[in-house]
Amino acid sequence: MKLIFDDKGDNTMLKKVIQTTSMAALLAAAITATSLAALPDNATTVSVPGQTIRLEQKWDKIFPQSDKVDHRKVTFQNRYGFTLVGDLYVPKNAQGKLAAIAVSGPFGAVKEQVSGLYAQTLAERGFVTLAFDPSFTGESSGNPRNTASSDINTEDFSAAVDYLGSLDMVDRDKIGILGVCGWGGFALNDAIQDTRVKAVATSTMYNMTQVMANGYEITMDPQGQYDRVAPQSADARYQMKEQLNNARWESSKHGYTDLAPANNLDPEKDITSETPKFIAEYANFYRTSRGYHPRSVNSNPNGSWATIMPLGLINMPIMEYAKEMRTPTLIVAGEKAHSRYFSEDAYNAIGSKDKELYIVPGANHTDLYDNTQKIPFDKFEQFFKDHLK
What we know:
Layout: H1 12-38, E1 45-48, E2 51-54, E3 69-77, E4 83-91, E5 98-104, H2 114-124, E6 128-132, H3 150-166, E7 170-180, H4 182-193, E8 199-203, H5 208-214, H6 234-253, H7 277-286, H8 310-315, E9 329-334, H9 340-349, E10 355-360, H10 367-370, H11 377-387
Parallel strand pairs: 5-6, 5-7, 7-8, 8-9, 9-10
Antiparallel strand pairs: 1-2, 3-4, 4-6
């Protein structure tokens, strides 16, 4: 830069440059301060009658922290009074009101695993995102632990929408939801009932009420050849309900806290040549350093879900009004995923005129948990940008 002095030696241009630079610095500082001020404080504790949960303050995710987003741990309530805990991700130096996405899943996972990866990545792409632990699991409240409910877990998504819509930085007319694995079904169920949800996406989804009632409708193949088979019969389902209800006698003595055995194998000891391929894939995610987290139901080597958890899911199916869905919908599944049929069934069931079934070539179910080379983040980003505007 050339500085021009007048004939009196007055450095007028220099003063103007300094003034302009100072003003820019002040403006930048004000913008940063405003951005940070808009973020809530980190939540540290959940304290409700009969339950106190101290929230982890260190970064304990299975994925590295991004330097492109701000992160806060937050709490919010659903309409049943449960306090949910989430990780809020906001693009750094975000300005104005942004579109937002609530993310949860897989079934039995925590926000430090898959949903957090999805949320942080989408925040890097310009959205305010919230990855949350469902009621009864992770850091969220709810007793007895490790249980599930068609109604309450659908409500968890609506409560996340409530929370996002309360933030000054979020345009409440631009909120979407995304469910992974078992939470894909709950996300679709919520979008059917909650007209505030402007776009819904699923990744490698399950319908948990379908699988609990019918069993897996595929061959349990060690080679990963998952041919469709008939669901279990009404007689078989009755026998299963008999076993679960008889288990209530003992479970009721302990406040319904009894846990079933670990629901994922020890990959170093238990996997054989006869193990169905997807069972081995689950174990190699949840029970290894790749995806293990101590608060995850699916990672626990000593127990899993409450013994009588399936009862409510068996008898209270979700997506009963799928034909009435009007929300734009993106359903993503892996080509090689054992769970692909859930996505295909859901796609055929929903009535939305704006819907897409996207199959990821060569991907299995757990590839879409953490394999960033296969998770179609570009597809998710464009879908939400197209419909949250």
